[in-house]
Structures are given as structure tokens and as C-alpha cells.
Amino acid sequence: MPSYVVYVGRVPGVYEDWEECRRQVHRFSGNSYKGYPTRAEAEARYARYLAGEMRERRNSMKITLVMLMLIVTATLFFYVMVV
User: What is the pLDDT of residue 83?
Assistant: First the structure.
């Protein structure tokens, strides 16, 4: 029985019913979804997608932290030079 993954929609997740999947993506700008032959494959693909999203968030947080540290260091450096 086919299953569907809503990657970007009103409520992302795995759906067994096409109509429920359609309700999640219909008229949702930038939607992303895909059908798979089995629920197991759909769940595996969605789990991989979520793992990738988490990895991207961690990388984004690292970049933000490094930028913040650079700004603080530069601010302190210029403060010390002026005083």
C-alpha cells in the first residue's frame, strides 16, 4: 500500500491516505511531498530528511556562534585600543 511523505506542508509527516496528504500540501506555497511504495520506505526517507535538517540547523548554529565570537572579539579589541 503506498504511503506519502509531506516534507513541507501544513503538518509534515508520513501519510497512508492520499487525500490526507493532499490536504496538507494543497495551496501551501513551497510544498514538498512524495509517494513511496511502502510505509517502511516512506518512514525511512522521512527519518533521513529529518536527520539532514537537524545537521543543517547544527551547522547554522555553529556559524552563528563563530560570527558572534568574532564580533565580540573585534568590539573588545577596538574598545581596548580606544581606552
Answer: 74
Q: How are beta strands 13-15 and 32-36 bridged, if at all?
A: unpaired
HSE (side-chain half, CA atoms, 13 Å) at 37 = 0
37: nearest Cα among 82, 3, 62:
3
* Cα–Cα nearest to 33, from 50, 12, 62: 12
CB 6, CB 21: distance < 8 Å = yes
**DSSP readout, 24-46?**
HHTT-TT-EEEEESSHHHHHHHH
**What is the C-alpha to C-alpha distance for residues 10 and 25, in angstroms, rounded to an integer?**
7
* pTM greater than the 0.90 cutoff: no
Distance CA 7, CA 66 (A): 30
